[in-house]
Design brief:
Elements lengths: L2 E5 L8 E8 L4 E3 L2 E5 L5 H5 L5 E4 L2 E8 L5 E5 L3 E7 L4 H12 L4 E8 L4 E4 L2 E4 L2 E9 L9 E5 L7 H5 L4
Parallel strand pairs: 4-11, 5-12
Antiparallel strand pairs: 1-9, 2-8, 2-13, 3-4, 5-6, 7-8, 9-12, 10-11
């Protein structure tokens, strides 16, 4: 079963979204437990070369980009899981641009699974230590995780794309 987690704060000024899908060390209440993502939780998944999708609202019929095509870039840094997404000229992409420019997007989210050794429980607190990342989403609803961010840009401001992914808002 794929789990999904949300985060908020989306800002706009163009066609490339960038920011953080998840931040390390931020607690989120998920039903009856508290969850926190540990540094390195996404590392193995990113290093595997798996094709991670960018979706609108976790909807697989609304693909916004993917790592395989190079329209989605993901990287872990000291803050969390950073991303850069070139939005397509599709209805879903245009809708997200309009909503982001108005400040109406709910935030970012990610869909994942956890293997046997990927989590640690202490009472009602769950630490995510290693997850398999399946997708990241731009969402129009409420976040579970605070502190993520996304900026919308017309073009990449740096020749070094990695530098852009790691920018904070």
């Amino acid at each position: 079963m794929i789990e999904q987690r949300f985060a908020h704060e989306v800002r706009a000024s163009g066609r490339t979204l960038s920011g953080y899908v998840a931040r390390f060390g931020t607690e989120a209440r998920i039903g009856s437990f508290v969850e926190v993502i540990k540094p390195g939780a996404f590392r193995a998944s990113l290093d595997s070369g798996a094709d991670v999708l960018a979706l609108a609202d976790h909807d697989p019929s609304r693909v916004l980009g993917r790592t395989r095509s190079g329209t989605l870039h993901l990287a872990e840094d000291g803050e969390g899981l950073a991303f850069s997404l070139q939005l397509p000229d599709t209805q879903a992409g245009r809708d997200l641009v309009a909503l982001a420019e108005r400040g109406d997007l709910g935030g970012c989210s990610f869909g994942f699974t956890v293997g046997a050794d990927g989590e640690r429980w202490t009472g009602n607190k769950r630490e995510l230590r290693a997850v398999t990342l399946h997708e990241v989403s731009i969402v129009q609803s409420w976040p579970a995780y605070d502190g993520t961010s996304a900026n919308l840009r017309h073009r990449m401001p740096h020749a070094d794309h990695r530098r852009l992914w790691l920018e904070t808002v």
